[in-house]
Amino acid sequence: MEFIVDQQVQDIELPENLKLNTFLQEFHSDCPHPECGFGFYGFAFGQSPFPVPKLVQNALVSNASKGTYASVQGIPELRNAISKYNKHYFEIDIDPQRIYVGPGTKELIFNLLEILHGTVILPTPAWLGYLPQIRLLKKNYHMLPTAINRKISPDDLRKLALRLHDRQKILILNNPHNPTGLLYDRLELEEIADVCREQNIIIISDEIYAQTTYDFSKFVSMGKIYPEGTFVTNGLSKSHAAGGYRLGYVIFPQNALDLQMQFKKILATEYTAVSTPIQNAAISGFEISDEMNEYFTITRNIHEIMGEYTYNKLSEIEGVKVTKPEATFYLLADFNYYAMDLQTAKITTSQKLSEALIVHPYHTAIVGGDSLVLERTDYSARIAYVDYNGSKVYENYQNQKPKILSEREKFVKINAPKIVAGIRMIERFFEQIKKTI
Ligand SMILES: Cc1ncc(COP(=O)(O)O)c(C=O)c1O
Prior knowledge:
By secondary structure, the protein is of the alpha/beta class. It has two domains: 184 residues, Alpha-Beta Complex (Aspartate Aminotransferase, domain 1), CATH 3.90.1150.10; 221 residues, Aspartate Aminotransferase, domain 2. The strands form three sheets. A seven-stranded mixed β-sheet has the order 2-8-7-6-5-3-4, sandwiched between helices. It has a four-stranded antiparallel β-sheet with strand order 9-10-13-12. Helix 9 links the parallel strand 6 and strand 7. Helix 7 packs parallel to helix 8. The site of pyridoxal-5'-phosphate has 14 residues, from helix 5.
């Protein structure tokens, strides 16, 4: 029997998580060297290593008996908690009626792209999740390469918008940003919002990493700057280390009631509602409590310490340029200084660079530039600094908080030896590449 699949499905790339898994299996499990048995230095997976907050775990257990369907939009108690959470942490005042709960922000972003007319503007580098969705929906789209500082240039945004003839355009803004770890400040957001108002661009502001901002007072939501044109998405996946719970939410712009009805229709058509026990469990994760506050503080401090070490050590490697993360658990490393050497060694694309690093003797997993919507020949890579035992490190941090730089470095050496060794491997790889030429 031959099954025929629609062309737009064939045309989309494998999403990041599947691509990575397949890639790592193919290139590592077949490795004949005994050293391969220990696994690899994991800079590739974008997952918080910490345990789900105890409060949320316990709430899930006590809500396990709730077997009825929930309302499409999300249960009122959860939307109320999300509204208060946004007021407390992000200083946005939103009526719970503007909040829709969904099975992860990835699905909600897909649903938004489904209902919103217009060309999509995708700044690059980008999280790989967006592009297959845009393609699957057969939407028109334009890449917007970011400026030298790896942030959206308002002038470039305006120039691109002027070339597009749709009445409405959709900008995907990801702040804080995966893969660079960069954070937009208020002024930068205001300048982008000005262009959006002028050019009729609506924004999907993916703020899934907001709570990880190291100096939390610096985070500003686009929902505050451009409330009439921004859809803010956020959820449990990164801040609460609960990607597997599959729970996210979107805040609709002000005065978009008709649109909300269209959205509700789509959600009801596609998945009815998010699992009822999960919605109930999430309430305690969004309610303001000392326990959650401590959890957010500790996890963001640990991400900062790991990020600082990774940034410092990668920057010390000759020619390597690294973005300085202010949030998330990623940074972008630019290895283009070695472009000629890599090409001579027949490593002609960023995908080949990932392959060369994963095999013996380097055993180091990174996400290459082509998976970040960069040119195939751009030797940049996303480095995630989460390869450690999150539960143990959380406890160690509670027991002794490292303060000065030398203490923080020591903390990384003791608690995250795979990060330390992995960076050394990257260094060795490039030393070798230079030597063999
Ligand atoms: C930038 C970005 N947006 C969205 C997501 C998906 O989040 P969710 O688990 O809520 O679908 C991720 C996950 O890696 C991400 O990095």
